[in-house]
Amino acid sequence: MKIDGTPYRSIWVDEADGWSVRIIDQTKLPWSVDIVRVTDVDTMAHAIKAMLVRGAPLIGASAAYGVALALRADASDSNLRSALTLLGETRPTAINLRWALARMEKVLTPLTQNARVAAAYAEALRICDEDVATNEAIGRTGLPLLAAHGKDGRRINVLTHCNAGWIATVDWGTALAPIYMAHDSGLNVHVWVEETRPRNQGASLTAWELGKHGVPHTVIADNAGGHMMQRGDVDLVIVGTDRVTRAGDVANKIGTYLKALAAVDNNIPFWVALPSSTIDWTISNGLTDIPIEERSPLEVTTMTGRALDGSIATVRIVPTSSPAANPAFDVTPARLVTGLITERGLCDANEAALTEMFQDLA
Amino acid sequence: MKIDGTPYRSIWVDEADGWSVRIIDQTKLPWSVDIVRVTDVDTMAHAIKAMLVRGAPLIGASAAYGVALALRADASDSNLRSALTLLGETRPTAINLRWALARMEKVLTPLTQNARVAAAYAEALRICDEDVATNEAIGRTGLPLLAAHGKDGRRINVLTHCNAGWIATVDWGTALAPIYMAHDSGLNVHVWVEETRPRNQGASLTAWELGKHGVPHTVIADNAGGHMMQRGDVDLVIVGTDRVTRAGDVANKIGTYLKALAAVDNNIPFWVALPSSTIDWTISNGLTDIPIEERSPLEVTTMTGRALDGSIATVRIVPTSSPAANPAFDVTPARLVTGLITERGLCDANEAALTEMFQDLA
């Protein structure tokens, strides 16, 4: 999508040298757009772990390019295995990471060492291009859900949590794809952006990308989402996901489950947008089978933002003697999900519907 | 309760001069304990409005002392009326404010001007002493609910939202009164403290007061409360309230409703602790009849804390071009409330139970 009128992807190979990988350092957003040049697999692993790149689909694409960078340095079997292990251990929850690495492994392992580098770059680009096409298809699937609320120019109020926008993918986003498509087609869309503590991806990323593309939005505290639904100011909820089980349970950013409960309580549709690569066909019960990443308590006890003098500063917001806990994801049981917005169409969140729509994958 | 071993109330008349009013500036917590001397009604009104004092019971006590300060300057009927109006307009949601002012008006109006100042101080002190006794009774009512989960030294996990502790009242607190009582009686209590965005009263006030009194606790993002319940780490929820309707609907800090939904979904008791002065007998339907204060968007777009150099700094956390909305309270329908912890005992959250327990007030 666009940043101040210029189209971007969130990851691309540098045009000048043809091999280094360019990413936007998302830890610097919204205050500066820093394009980082990544030239080795260790740096890419760090970029994923430290969340310079984040969002399940973008993590997968980044890992794929990480493999390409690793093979460029050393295309041996042992180095391929090392790279797959290193990249696979960067983040525990997103299924796309494992999916992309498995795909790279399958393509590259049979090849001679000489053929591997070019094949790795080609496969990584294919993963990116497919992601863009997939997300555009997700947008087309979701567009009618928004349009149904926007008759005669009526304002369509969508609530979203965290960031499942174009910078969480290669382009378009998942949850935001139908929103961009609705906006670009002239519908009167307005997004309630939940700030999404503790890392504030809503306030710092979703608000930023919607603003840069020109989509009207309002930031609210995560606590306010239920109240907005109670007072009739939300037409539908759309969120992304890091992993969906074959039974339709949805792992997503911590706090998603609370919004699903509120949506059900207020009879508001709660949709989850995802590419089929997010589905983990090996598990059913999200509550017992999805590992939940526990991140640093510092994300809860401190907050980073822009100080009055324009510098980026971190302040402590919890007494120094108080401990904090920081689970990064929660699981929304399928029973609370209105449906899934996928690249193949709308799908009910249950095993029968999922295995029917994705027979070739399930 | 205690600050580092020394017992405090949250509001008191200065012992040296016998008339000025001392409060703890809660906007400075947890980083410094600033005792402010209030000598006139305008300053007290500002202290309530700017939340140097906050929490429904403490707002009522502060307003009562505000009337005393006003009459000390001018005990005329017109000045009494001005003071009641000024103080009554400081905050819209808490019923205790109106309750305390109505009580002061009723006591003071019939008196001669000469008698009013002493009577106002006496009545304000009575309101404070009654609040302490009431909260202690709330603690006794709630204690068995905690004790039931703490057999054989088992850790009792209580989740609370916002601050309904001793500094939200004159002493003991409402939601925290049973917790202090359980802790002081040797039970193994641990509190999940939700940070309570956007003003962070949980992280900055509840964590501070529990820590200063020595109660084990862990701060979590508001988003994490539902997940903690899903994984079995919460035995019960106790929150305070700013207003309860005669039907048992509960207005409390924004986000409370979401935790009630999660508690019901996980079969966890959701208790609301309150003095009967918090009940608004004039209304039934909380969703339609309780005005919800809309506060400054700056509370959402900025965050204040302690910088690395020890100074208190404010950072912006939302892009400057993104608007924000900031409703300060939400309403939890009575159907989601397990029961009310009152100074007279446990009470079901419905009109029949409330009017039976509080026949003299209803």
Features:
homodimer; 362 residues; alpha/beta; Four Helix Bundle (Hemerythrin (Met), subunit A); Rossmann fold; 2 domains; seven-stranded mixed beta sheet; 12 helices; 39% helix
Structural summary, described in words:
The structure is a homodimer of 362-residue chains. The model of chain A has no long low-confidence stretch (mean pLDDT 96). Chain A contains twelve helices and 18 strands. The longest helix of chain A is centred in the middle third of the chain and has 35 residues, at 113-147. In chain A, helix 2 (56-73) runs parallel beside helix 4 (95-108), helix 2 (56-73) packs antiparallel against helix 5 and helix 4 runs antiparallel to helix 5. Chain A is globular. Chain A has helices at 41-49, 56-73, 77-88, 95-108, 113-147, 177-184, 201-213, 225-230, 256-265, 286-289, 298-301, 351-357; strands at residues 2-3, 6-7, 11-13, 21-24, 35-38, 156-160, 189-194, 217-220, 236-239, 243-245, 250-253, 270-273, 279-280, 302-307, 312-316, 329-332, 339-342, 345-347. With 362 residues, chain A is α/β, with parallel strands linked by helices. Chain A has two domains: 2-131, translation initiation factor eif-2b, domain 1 (Four Helix Bundle (Hemerythrin (Met), subunit A)); 139-357, 3-Layer(aba) Sandwich (Rossmann fold). At the A-B interface, helix 7, strand 8, helix 8, helix 9 and strand 14 of A face helix 7, strand 8, helix 8, helix 9 and strand 14 of B.
